[in-house]
Write a structure and sequence with these properties.
The chain has about 210 residues and is α/β, with parallel strands linked by helices. It has a single domain, classed as TIM Barrel. The chain is about 40% helix and about 15% strand. The chain has an eight-stranded parallel beta barrel with strand order 1-2-3-4-5-6-7-8, surrounded by six helices. Helix 3 links the parallel strand 2 and strand 3. Condenses 4-methyl-5-(beta-hydroxyethyl)thiazole monophosphate (THZ-P) and 2-methyl-4-amino-5-hydroxymethyl pyrimidine pyrophosphate (HMP-PP) to form thiamine monophosphate (TMP). InterPro entries: Aldolase_TIM (IPR013785), ThiamineP_synth_sf (IPR036206), ThiamineP_synth_TenI (IPR022998), TMP_synthase (IPR034291).
């Protein structure tokens, strides 16, 4: 049984992180409570992606945060990442699983209840559901599904799930009330003046919701 915590899932964005950098942003966010870090860098060359992934792996050693690589199977295997996240057009989950082996965490993006229902829990470890709200951090993004859509999609599969897409601090309670295991954030931490403080605020809000729920 793979052990991972989807509570606060940071998706890195090179442009947003700017001069502060993706590695430093990740370190700060993990100090603040981020439990997962995904390297998503669509515009990077293979070599640039490899160098960043290696630096992130080194930076996160000794923490409990898991390093996930977006889409790039070769990079994930090359650095021994904790996991890989794929979209609906990045090859079948079964083919990807065959390449990465049984031990690596595999996440899959879904936007509809139909896609969620098709996800095989033998192959996929968690779902990324969204976009929940409109977002400018991903090109050619699908239409947002809202909180009601998130709840509907989540209810069609028993896999752990993280909500993504335009999620900000005020959304924490509504997102978690749908039953999902956590929330993924990009611009709410990347590019912020104090990413550790932003992550800490999310961490506190998540803990507060769970404490109130009992």
């Amino acid at each position: 049984m793979k052990q991972f915590d989807l509570s606060l899932y940071l998706v890195l964005d090179r442009e947003l992180c700017g001069s502060f950098g993706m590695v430093e942003t990740a370190i700060a966010a993990v100090r603040g409570g981020a439990t997962m870090v995904q390297l998503r860098d669509k515009d990077a060359s293979q070599q640039e992606m490899l160098e960043t992934a290696k630096a992130l792996k080194t930076a996160l050693e000794g923490t409990n945060a898991k390093l996930i690589i977006n889409d790039n199977v070769d990079i994930a295997i090359a650095i021994g990442a904790d996991g890989l996240h794929i979209g609906q057009h990045d090859g079948s989950p079964e083919q990807v699983r065959a390449k990465i082996g049984p031990d690596m965490i595999l996440g899959l993006s879904v936007q509809t209840a139909e896609l969620a229902a098709k996800a095989d829990s033998v192959v996929v470890d968690y779902l990324g559901i969204g976009p929940v709200f409109p977002t400018a951090t991903k090109k050619n993004c699908a239409p947002s599904i809202g909180i009601d859509g998130l709840k509907r999609v989540y209810s069609h599969n028993g896999l752990p799930a993280v909500a993504i897409g335009g999620i900000k601090l005020p959304h924490v309670d509504d997102v978690l009330a749908t039953g999902v295991n956590g929330l993924a954030v990009v611009s709410a931490i990347c590019g912020q003046d104090h990413p550790e403080q932003k992550a800490r605020a999310f961490h506190a809000a998540i803990a507060g919701f769970r404490a109130a729920k009992g």
